[in-house]
Amino acid sequence: MPSSSGNICCSCRRWWGELCSLRDSPDPDRISGCEVSVIKARWGIDGGPVLAMGAFPVSSFHGGGRVTCVFVVTMQTAGRHSKTLLQVTLAVIKPDAVAHPLILQAVHQKILDNGFIIVMHKYLKWSQEESQRFYAEHSDRFFYQRVVEFMASGPMRAYILAQHDAVTRWRQLMGPTRVFRARFSAPYSIRGHLGLTDTRNTTHGSDSPESAAREITFFFPEFDQRRWWSTEEQLYRQGHYYYHPLQQQHLLQNPQTPLAEGQMH
Ligand code: ADP
Ligand code: MG
């Protein structure tokens, strides 16, 4: 966590707060000032157990006079606490798998074993109409009616998953779309291992970050993506979360409070 020292005047405090909230912005032009870009350049460095930074002065006008505050910044990056933004994806355990508790549990465990953060999850059942809307892009394909009926045939479990490169990682873990191929080319993938047919292929995953944002809204209209990115992403990325076995998801924990005994990521 960055820390600052020195006698910070209120305008610098505001500047500092803004810097803290923007420091991982992918667009460096959103903030101006050479001090800020120097910091961003350094904060952009990924990995390494501890990176310490020097002091830097920031001048501002305060109460009619010019005030210079000195900030001392240290940065800690321990292992996976990377400076690269997390990515979110939509994952769905389809009705064929939800119908079998052991398979459902096996897929859930694979999510955990592969380092995904479970931001939210829920069970839901689609109407035919919802299923048609979701798969509209395939409406001219021979399997459209089949997949629409299958997806409306029983309960599903949907997840918002976060991790670095979550979209690609989840798709890799799922394996190829067609189960009869996946069994040969990716036998240890979810679909290769647990899929029943090319249609009943156990799981869904968004195919790009843009699809993920759209599909998350489709499944979780109550999830405030803007808020998550501005306030929670950073806390998850820095490791301030733990797995809650009863709720079967990861919850944020106060950054000042270490994990209690028995709590784990
Ligand atoms: P993916 O789910 O891997 O993104 P698609 O978007 O191409 O794959 O297809 C959506 C869903 O339609 C698949 O997950 C599967 O349930 C079904 N599907 C796709 N291709 C076929 C096929 N050739 N035969 C039967 N069902 C298919
Ligand atoms: Mg698809």
Describe the protein.
It is a single chain. The protein has 265 residues and is an alpha+beta fold. The protein has eleven helices and eight strands. It has helices at residues 10-22, 34-43, 95-98, 101-113, 128-134, 144-151, 166-174, 179-185, 190-194, 209-219, 225-237, and strands at 50-62, 65-76, 87-93, 117-124, 156-163, 203-205, 241-244, 249-252. Bound molecules: adenosine-5'-diphosphate and magnesium ion. Residues 138, 143, 147, 177-178, 198-199, 201, 204, 207 line the site of adenosine-5'-diphosphate.
Order of helices and strands: HHEEEHHEHHEHHHEHHEE
Bound molecules: adenosine-5'-diphosphate, magnesium ion
Distance between the termini: 19 Å
Beta-strand residue percentage: 15-25%
Q: What is the β-strand count?
A: 8
* Low-confidence blocks of residues: 1-12, 22-57, 59-63, 67-80
Largest sheet: spatial strand order: 4-5-3-6
Radius of gyration: 23 Å
Structural class: alpha+beta
What is the helical fraction, as a range of percent? 25-40%
Number of H- or I-type helical stretches: 11
Largest sheet: 4 strands, antiparallel
State mean pLDDT (0 to 100 scale): 79
Tell me which oligomeric state these chains represent: single chain
- The coarse silhouette is globular
